[in-house]
């Protein structure tokens, strides 16, 4: 009987000593760079303006700003300004920009949370980016960005289902 108890205790110790490999997912969420608000022309141009000269410069800096990260995927809404914002990063990292639907942020957040152990960069808008951060955190923490704010991004890390966010500036 003593031997059975000893074996049981040894087995129990071995089971509790086994470490689970917690995988951390990293999501870098940013608003598009400055858009060109002086564009004249069609309604389509006004609804989907390109980046301004300052926006192009900001987008060009993103690979350096995020040099500590190796993105596994890069996502953007299907707008010129968001795609242009992450194009320099996509070129440098050899990744294709994947399009997500900003009208279905809940579904996109669920998709992102399934990407365990990955680093994903997401370009969005002044309202959709903070909302997506909130969905990943599962709490309503961040309000929409002011229309004049282009230098803010979030790094959301998720480990064992627990999400944390840091606000960054560049």
UniProtKB/TrEMBL annotation:
Source organism (scientific name): Sediminibacterium sp. KACHI17
First and last residue of the signal peptide: 1-22
Pfam families, sorted: His_Phos_1
Binding site for substrate: 81
Source superkingdom: Bacteria
Keywords: Signal
Protein name: Phosphoglycerate mutase family protein
């Amino acid at each position: 009987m003593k031997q059975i108890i000893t074996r049981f205790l040894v087995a129990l110790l071995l089971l509790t000593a086994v470490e689970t490999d917690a995988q951390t997912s990293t999501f870098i969420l940013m608003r598009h760079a400055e858009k060109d608000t002086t564009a004249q022309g069609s309604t389509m141009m006004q609804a989907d303006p390109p980046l301004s000269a300052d926006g192009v410069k900001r987008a060009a800096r993103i690979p350096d700003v995020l040099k500590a990260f190796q993105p596994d995927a890069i996502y953007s809404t299907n707008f010129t300004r968001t795609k242009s914002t992450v194009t320099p990063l996509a070129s440098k990292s050899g990744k294709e920009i994947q399009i997500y639907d900003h009208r279905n942020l809940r579904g996109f957040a669920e998709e992102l949370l399934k990407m365990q152990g990955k680093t994903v960069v997401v370009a969005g808008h002044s309202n959709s980016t903070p909302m997506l951060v909130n969905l990943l955190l599962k709490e309503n923490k961040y309000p929409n960005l002011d229309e004049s704010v282009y230098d803010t991004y979030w790094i959301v890390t998720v480990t064992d289902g627990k999400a944390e966010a840091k606000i960054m500036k560049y």
